[in-house]
From TrEMBL:
UniProt-recorded Gene Ontology molecular function terms: 2 iron, 2 sulfur cluster binding; metal ion binding
Name of the protein described by the UniProt record: Ubiquinol-cytochrome c reductase iron-sulfur subunit
A GO cellular-component term linked to this record: membrane
PANTHER family associated with the record: CYTOCHROME B-C1 COMPLEX SUBUNIT RIESKE, MITOCHONDRIAL
UniProt domain Rieske: residue ranges: 50-155
Membrane-crossing residue ranges in chain numbering: 20-39
Length: 182
């Protein structure tokens, strides 16, 4: 009799502990769900607007800016500077293309149809303006909007804004940075 009372007491104690554990787990789960619901589902991506430096800092010719994955072309003459930015991401499968000016253009012969950029992954080639010379790339390299930051005068490439080639071009009067879009 005493033995069976002891067993009953142990069983009750076990059941009481078990229900406490289950209750604790349920309460913990509810608290976690409430706390999790207060945290917004936001994916923090890097900004698509990339500052690349002031006009003086950017070299003449074609320069690769790694952060923006963009080639920036700068050409100055007669007190004016023309700037444009073009994606360096191959339109085939996304490799970074290389600036590979042809021998003719290195020698000063400007032929818009000759190769300006090549992709080492599958052999696509593009003109200096990004048009496809040889596939498999299906599309030209897009041009991005370029502007000047009012805060610090740095040029800003907006890789989220693809623009028509002629609208992507900035013409700056070197001394005063007067911007004129053409
Ligand atoms: S990724 Fe450039 S040719 Fe395939």
């Amino acid at each position: 009799m005493n033995n069976s009372a002891n067993q009953e007491s142990t069983r009750r104690s076990f059941l009481a502990k078990l229900s406490l554990w289950i209750g604790g787990l349920a309460a913990g789960g509810s608290v976690f769900a409430v706390v999790r619901s207060l945290i917004p589902n936001v994916l923090y991506e890097p900004s698509k607007k990339v500052k690349i430096g002031t006009l003086d800092f950017i070299p003449e010719g074609v320069t690769f800016f790694k952060d923006a994955k963009t080639f920036v072309s700068k050409h100055s003459s007669g007190g004016k500077t023309k700037i444009h930015a073009m994606s360096a991401i191959c339109t085939h499968l996304g490799c970074i293309v290389q600036h590979t000016e042809s021998e003719e253009s290195k020698g000063g012969i400007k032929d818009k149809s000759s190769v300006g950029f090549s992709c080492a992954c599958h052999g696509s080639q593009f003109t200096i303006d990004g048009d496809v010379v040889k596939g498999p790339a299906p599309e030209p390299l897009p041009w991005f909007a370029v502007s000047i930051s009012p805060d610090d005068g740095q040029l800003v490439v907006d890789t989220s804004r693809v623009v028509e080639k002629q609208k992507a071009l900035l013409v700056l009067k070197s001394k005063h940075y007067n911007v004129r879009k053409v």
